[in-house]
Amino acid sequence: MAAVxxxxxxxxxxxxxxxxxxxxxxTPVAWSPDFDASQVDAxxxxxxxxxxxxxxxRLAAAGxxxxxxxxxxxxxxxxxxxxxxYLVKPFPLYRLSEALTDVLGSSPRTAAALS
Length: 115
Prior knowledge:
This protein has helices spanning 11-23, 50-61, 76-79, 93-106, 108-114, and strands at residues 3-7, 27-30, 42-45, 66-70, 85-88. By secondary structure, the chain is α/β, with parallel strands linked by helices. The protein has one domain (3-105): Response regulator (Rossmann fold, 3-Layer(aba) Sandwich). Strand 4, helix 3 and strand 5 form a beta-alpha-beta unit. It contains 5 helices and 5 strands. It has a 5-stranded parallel sheet with strand order 2-1-3-4-5, with helices on both faces.
């Protein structure tokens, strides 16, 4: 089981993302100002929110795989972080499930946590 940080400014979408993470058998982690990047295995981030984008930069620097889910298409600032996935809203939930499964199955951080 992996810990997946969710940084989504809209409560209804955040709840839906948490449901997907939970159904995959992982633990959703709500973002808080004092969170520790070493405690999560991946993150789902809405880069259209300035605070979430700052978080994504911090996570990428710490080597945490970031999946972007946004109403905006990718741009230079998001692609420069080399996201594990970039899903444009609205997207089918199975795409998020597939992206999370791919990144968590291939992440050295997750492999260590699951062993």
